[in-house]
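Sample A.
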Amino acid sequence: MPKEKQQSVGALTISRLSKQIRDTKRILEHGSLPPNLKVEKERRLKALEDELLKKRAKKRASSVENEMRQKYRMVKFLEEKKVTREINKLTKLKNKGTNLSEADIAMIEGRLKQLYVDYNYIKHFPVGRKYISLYSKIESKDPNNDKKRQEIREQIKESIESMRINSLVDQYRTELEKEVAEKLEKAKVNKKKSGNSDANEGKLNIDRDDFFDI
């Protein structure tokens, strides 16, 4: 009888991955497998568990990203409006050019470069993170926020200059998914240590607050 072809783990949904993990564990726990088949099933189980973690992390990261986007939607809207207004004002002044010295033009161009970085900071701030305002007087008193803000501005400035802003956004998203995966894995380990069974594989929940301050 021909051997049934196994579906690629990457093509499986979260629910199908969870079911196959449970089924594979039951087969391994039976204890009567030939050595070569046992190794094959153990490898399959590892691949299934890795793919489940990856898919759940991606799904949870997307949820966190949407939550944070909504949470800071208004403050980012107001900051973008403020930056855009100044960009338009200075651009108009520069184009008009009346009674402007070379020093004036250089100063305007320098300020415009800063504003373009600020604009992209607002638009492309790391996904799923607590937004650090450009103009909040409260946040500006926190040295940690000042440091983080400057680091992100520098990353965005460099990405603009090298024309790789989209790559930077993808990098931020990948970093978020990695951190979410680590939190999910840690929660799974703690769950096992506490004595809970993994009968509900794939339904493990993480407190939303765990991500808001990433």
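Sample B, a different protein:
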Amino acid sequence: VEAKTGNIYGYEVLARIYDEKENKYIPAYQFINNAIKYGLVEEIDKMIQEKAIKYLSEKKLNKCLFLNMSKNFIYKTKNLENLYNLCVSNGLKPENVYLEITEEEAILDFKNVKGTIQHGRSLGFKYAIDDFGAGYSNFVYLKHFNVDIIKIDGALVANIHQDLDNQIIVENIIRIAKHKNIKVLAEMVELEEEKDVLIKLGVDYLQGYLFGKPEKEVKE
């Protein structure tokens, strides 16, 4: 949601598998690791993208879409072009689609990520660095990556109203991001007190259970 107004800015797509025997959802990292092991992760990426884009198109939800993608998918030029064609064929503007790259991937595979972002932006897509501040933070990389949004990791957000150190870290992330004309989104916001502090610090967008839990279908 937009921090200042509370209006919905966009939706993030999540993949979950439901275990009927255990009557619970399987954490994403478990089945994604198996998908990588058996070479199925790109197919999962494509399936999720197709379902999400068609859903937004059918429901005529004029909002942004945030897509998490595996590096197996995102580094291949053909995959980005196919995603572009999927958006266009369903009436979704590529500039309303944010492709998320984790901070860990951005730093550990700097050269490939930089080239990928350049190509994706040439197609109209926007980019977000996910989990920023999760342990790999190096502000120098913001100088080289042409991204639109930084998503502050939930570890820095949790109980931020009681943690002066995290407030200082987040304040500096926001200051540097704004200098680069990069928007800032805070993840995993669950408490009103957290929201109030984050708004005071100057974040642009907020995401978390305080505003809505994962749903099979989006709620406007």
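Observation for Sample B: The chain has nine helices and nine strands.
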